[in-house]
Specification:
Elements: H1 7-21, E1 29-36, H2 46-60, E2 63-71, H3 84-92, E3 99-102, H4 105-108, H5 112-125, E4 128-131, H6 141-173, E5 187-191, E6 197-201, H7 203-217, H8 222-232, H9 241-248, E7 258-263, E8 266-271, H10 289-302, E9 321-323, E10 331-337, E11 340-346, E12 357-358, H11 360-375, E13 379-386, H12 389-408, H13 419-438, E14 447-456, H14 457-476, E15 479-485, E16 494-500, H15 505-509, E17 511-512
Parallel strand pairs: 1-2, 1-3, 3-4, 9-15, 13-17
Antiparallel strand pairs: 5-6, 7-8, 10-11, 11-12, 13-14, 15-16
Helix pairs in contact: 1-2, 5-6, 7-10, 12-13
InterPro entries: DNA_bind_recomb_sf, DNA_bind_recombinase_dom, Resolv_N, Resolvase-like_N_sf, SSR_resolvase, Zn_ribbon_recom_dom
Protein name: Integrase
Keywords: DNA recombination, DNA-binding
Length: 518
């Protein structure tokens, strides 16, 4: 979708721009928000929206400082702060505007909760929301009343929605009819003769599951099954051994309603029991009980006794440690053999995962040492929004007072009648001028400031551990390349780490407060 400007549109735009140039320096700064999902004969074009909003800005005496145009964007699916152009202004450029103008409320938001969030953000930041074709203006009495009503309704609606959803799920879990939710792999939803939604067996999925069962009974590995299923197209290319195991061990294949049972960090499903103490049946069985039991026994024969999963995953610094050769993530591989259990780091694209880097903990320790040496003494800073309203108010007071004293010190003024009053007035004037000169002009602007939290990153990471350091390194874009070199007559390779740090790392390390975090 592209905005097309006619000669008449461009002429009007030029006229509005000339009028805007005549505005005083301290005129309110307006950001125009334009959104359209689909352009039809019944919708208002982006060009018309922009021109109408520029006319509105002229009527309000505001200077247009930017146009956030988000076309082909659904207001229902994408809230204002997540849109490409408007989101950049709201999250990073909010000090540059005073009011946000939009053509119509439904061009801005479609959800009451999103509108409530934007109003709350605007009041916090001292911004104004103005709709050309709706009675929304946060500076008017009607607008303030509307804010109160919308906020109350949004809270009630959010609470009611949460209650309804929880109640619906609790009810659905106890029913034999399929009411809500995503069917387990092997089943799809359909309608019976009466129009009721029911679960039926997916033929393609059933074919894949029965084939996998036969392979398991023959003693074939899950890795072999995954490769064959992906090549045949019976399962998607994203299939993993863990996913296949989860599907084959799911009691839903017996037609039971199930829920997830996270035991020891592993995702497993267990059947839900009805009032009679028996599993609730919601679909025809894909396996008989005997087939399901023999399948489980066959999988158990090849199962390795793996240690419980670590919270947060087996690999520390995931996404930070990269293979120097194939540039893919280094991950921890846990292997069991007759000699015991051991771990090593491997990559994805090198043959056989490359030369395995044994003892991942030693690699982590070396990485931590290198990072602390370079970044440990950097201060932890948080980006905060600073308003200049108080400073502007003080500057205005001082300027007005100085002008008054200067006028009264002119010949014939009230401070020139006696020597004493003149000297006192001149001393006061000098003091006022000094106070005005002492005010940093930057403090009179709405701006982002980096506030030192009183800690260094060394202290921050000592408190949060490797998890906190890993999250910060990934956020900042710091990466560490791992090179593994074969050593003659030695089984373990030589491991070398190369830290890659962006040039603007100081700025990237600043923690940005998220006004729209859910």
């Amino acid at each position: 979708m592209e905005a097309e400007w006619t000669e008449a549109d461009l002429a009007l735009l030029e006229e509005l721009t000339r009028a805007e140039a005549l505005l005083p320096q301290n005129a309110p700064r307006a950001l125009l928000s334009i959104r359209l999902s689909v352009l039809t004969d019944d919708t208002t074009s982006p060009v018309r929206q922009e021109l109408d909003l520029r006319i509105l800005a002229r009527e309000r005496g505001s200077r247009v400082v930017g146009v956030a145009s988000d076309l082909n964007v659904s207001a229902t699916k994408v809230p204002p702060w997540k849109r490409k152009e408007l989101g950049e202004w709201l999250n990073n450029r909010s000090p540059e505007f005073d009011e946000l103008l939009f053509w119509k409320l439904d061009r801005f938001v479609r959800r009451l909760s999103d509108l409530s969030t934007m109003i709350e953000w605007s009041l916090k930041r001292g911004k104004n929301l103005v709709s050309k074709n709706d009675s929304l203006d946060l500076t008017t009495t009607a607008g303030k009343i509307m804010v109160t009503i919308i906020g109350g309704i949004a809270e009630i609606e959010a609470a009611n929605t949460s209650t309804r959803v929880a109640s619906l799920w609790d009810y659905a879990k106890s029913q034999e009819d399929w009411i809500i939710g995503k069917p387990a792999y092997g089943y799809v939803t359909d309608e019976d003769d009466t129009g009721k939604v029911v679960l039926v067996i997916d033929p393609e999925a059933a074919k894949a599951l029965h084939w996998a069962r036969r392979m398991a009974l023959r003693g074939r590995s899950a890795g072999f099954m995954v490769r064959c299923l992906k090549r045949s197209g019976l399962m998607t290319q994203g299939l993993t051994v863990a996913t296949l195991h989860r599907r084959l061990r799911n009691p839903a294949l017996l037609g039971y309603r199930v829920e997830e049972d996270k035991n020891g960090g592993q995702r497993r499903s267990k059947p839900l029991l009805g009032k009679d103490g028996r599993p609730i049946k919601v679909a025809p069985p894909l396996f008989t009980e005997e087939e399901f039991e023999t399948l489980g026994a066959a999988l158990d024969k090849r199962r390795k006794s793996q240690p419980p999963r670590r919270v947060g995953g087996a690999t520390q610094f995931l996404g930070v440690l990269l293979c120097a050769d194939c540039k893919t993530n280094m991950t921890v591989q846990i292997t069991n053999n007759t000699h015991g259990t051991y771990q090593y780091l491997r990559c994805r694209n090198c043959k056989s995962g490359g030369l395995g880097a044994p003892n991942p903990e030693r690699v982590y320790e070396r990485l931590v040492q290198d990072v602390l040496k370079v970044l440990g003494d950097f201060p932890v800073q948080v980006r905060q929004y600073a308003e200049g309203a108080e400073a502007r108010k003080e500057i205005k007071r001082l300027q007005e007072t100085i002008a008054l004293y200067m006028k009264d010190l002119e010949p014939g003024g009230r401070y020139t009648k006696t020597r004493f009053t003149k000297e006192q007035a001149e001393a006061t004037l000098d003091k006022l001028i000094s106070e005005l000169e002492a005010i940093n002009p930057e403090t009179a602007k709405d701006r982002w400031v980096n506030v030192h939290g009183g800690k260094t990153f060394r202290e921050h990471w000592q408190e949060g551990g490797m998890e906190a350091m890993s999250a910060d390194l990934y956020r900042v874009g710091i990466r560490c390349e791992v090179t593994r070199t074969k050593v003659p007559k030695v089984r373990a390779p030589k491991v070398h780490l190369r830290l890659l740090i962006p040039k603007d790392v100081r700025e990237r390390l600043v923690i940005r407060e998220d006004d729209f975090a859910q």
